[in-house]
Design brief:
The protein is an alpha/beta fold. The protein has helices at residues 3-19, 24-35, 54-58, 85-89, 107-116, 120-141, 156-162, 166-178, 201-207, 237-248, and strands at 96-102, 148-151, 181-182, 187-189, 212-214, 225-233, 253-261. The protein folds into two domains: 24-59, no CATH class; 62-261, Rossmann fold.
């Protein structure tokens, strides 16, 4: 673009801004339209926010009310708050688990892209939704915000292979919205004898025995209100094991926040 055309474009832009006062929502729509942001689900332009059109956001599989502790919500039960048998028989060391979605289509595919295909666009979009619900919950409930965000750690070998920790990306999104600090390496993850994928609840719990151990930074959770951040909660084996380590280190209260729950 030559200098004369650039000067004319600049003058027209300034004149437009001076004569109109668009709302933040309108500005966001203009920006998304200019950047041609596609919806991660349907591929149509995402005008409301980067990554999701309004229709697809509305029809996402939002998690209904379920167990007031671990958030499980089987389809055969009414969408009400109750306490499941597992949490009654073996109460976990966390206060409550909050999950945004059911682990079904299209959320499961979006999370798989984050974990296996470098889906940073998916991480930004879902992380923003999680951060929005995180902030809303503590405002509406009157509970004080956690003072530390502790993403579930990956084993060092898997972290080197993948290059990033998806739970850390989600924690960063919450931190950017709330200002809460993220505690890296809050505990140490030991290598799994077998992958957790495909195992039933009993096998997962056995596989997770002694999975997390305290690290030099674990003591930083002492007398703090902690929020464990994860991507998917399946049988609660992972978050139970991690919460136990943090409790023994002196964490005052522990909440769990995750994108999705397998029901």
């Amino acid at each position: 673009m030559n200098r004369k055309r650039w000067r004319n474009l600049r003058q027209r832009t300034i004149a437009t801004v001076r004569t109109t006062t668009p709302s933040p929502t309108t500005l966001k729509k203009w920006l998304n339209q200019c950047l041609d942001q596609p919806c991660l689900v349907c591929g149509q332009p995402a005008l409301e926010q980067p990554g999701l059109c309004a229709d697809c956001e509305w029809t996402l599989p939002w998690q209904p009310p379920g167990c007031q502790c671990c958030a499980v919500s089987p389809e055969e039960r009414p969408a009400t708050t109750w306490l499941c048998d597992a949490c009654q028989l073996s109460p976990p060391h966390f206060r409550r688990c909050h999950c945004l979605f059911r682990y079904t289509s299209p959320v499961n595919a979006l999370i798989s892209r984050i974990k296996d295909n470098g889906g940073f666009a998916e991480a930004r979009t879902l992380g923003e939704l999680l951060a929005r619900e995180f902030e809303r919950h503590y405002q509406d409930s009157g509970q004080s915000l956690p003072t530390l965000l502790v993403p579930v750690p990956l084993h060092s070998g898997r972290l080197r292979f993948r290059g990033y920790n998806q739970s850390h990306l989600l924690a960063q999104a919450i931190s950017a919205r709330t200002g809460i600090k993220v505690l890296h390496n809050s505990c140490r993850r030991q290598p799994l004898t077998h992958s957790q994928r495909g195992l039933d609840a009993t096998s997962r719990r056995a596989n997770m025995a002694q999975m997390f151990t305290a690290s030099a930074r674990t003591r930083l959770t002492s007398n703090r209100q902690v929020a464990i951040i994860d991507d998917v909660v399946t049988t609660t084996s992972t978050i139970r094991a991690m919460a136990q380590v943090l409790t023994h280190a002196g964490a005052e209260t522990i909440d769990v926040w995750a994108l999705a729950r397998a029901n």
